[in-house]
Write a sequence for this structure.
């Protein structure tokens, strides 16, 4: 891979790009930990997502978030078990994408992570080996703002040190996040599962 002369930096989403999406087995494990009815996984997922954006933005503690999901405050032991199961859902990574990122780093391309993630998950992600590929990692819980809020992208753009957003590529698996980045002038790649598309965007952007 040769570094494109017109691309100075990349801003990458985590989940759905570097991180693999949770499987049904992950969801069932978490629902079981929460003592949710076994025949109502969809209901559990609705409860899980209802307050997730606020949680990801650092505006709810772990205890407050899970109290909203469950409708009651979990015990310290249950809270710990929920956090362990929740974290396990988001920490499996795509080796194909990581291989592309390693090659990109070898060319000197600066990469910054921009992820919607709660505080406890952010701390875990920072301990992973792939994290060293990123010059910086920005998480919504620490920024107190989630994508697609323009402020999230502005934080990330400043972190790259690149003034011209047209020389920065943003990669995310959610179309609305890419659209918000594009409105600020960044190049975008809506990632749909092809690591080849990532490599092409990194090496052929012009």
């Amino acid at each position: 891979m040769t570094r494109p002369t017109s691309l100075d930096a990349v801003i990458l989403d985590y989940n759905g790009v570097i991180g693999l999406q949770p499987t049904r087995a992950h969801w069932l494990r978490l629902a079981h930990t929460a003592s949710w009815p076994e025949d109502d996984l969809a209901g559990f997922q609705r409860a899980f997502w209802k307050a997730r954006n606020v949680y990801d933005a650092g505006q709810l503690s772990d205890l407050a978030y899970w109290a909203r999901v469950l409708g009651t405050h979990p015990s310290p032991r249950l809270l710990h078990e929920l956090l362990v199961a929740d974290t396990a859902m988001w920490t499996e990574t795509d080796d194909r994408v990581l291989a592309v990122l390693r090659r990109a780093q070898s060319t000197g391309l600066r990469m910054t992570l921009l992820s919607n993630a709660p505080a406890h998950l952010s701390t875990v992600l920072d301990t992973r080996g792939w994290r060293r590929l990123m010059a910086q990692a920005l998480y919504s819980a620490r920024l107190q703002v989630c994508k697609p809020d323009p402020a999230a992208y502005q934080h990330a753009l400043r972190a790259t040190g690149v003034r011209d957003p047209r020389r920065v590529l943003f990669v995310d698996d959610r179309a609305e996040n890419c659209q918000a980045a594009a409105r600020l002038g960044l190049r975008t790649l809506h990632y749909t599962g092809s690591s080849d598309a990532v490599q092409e965007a990194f090496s052929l952007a012009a």
Q: What stands out?
A: The mean pLDDT is 95. The longest helix spans residues 76-89. The beta strands are 9-12, 110-115, 136-139, 168-172, 187-190.
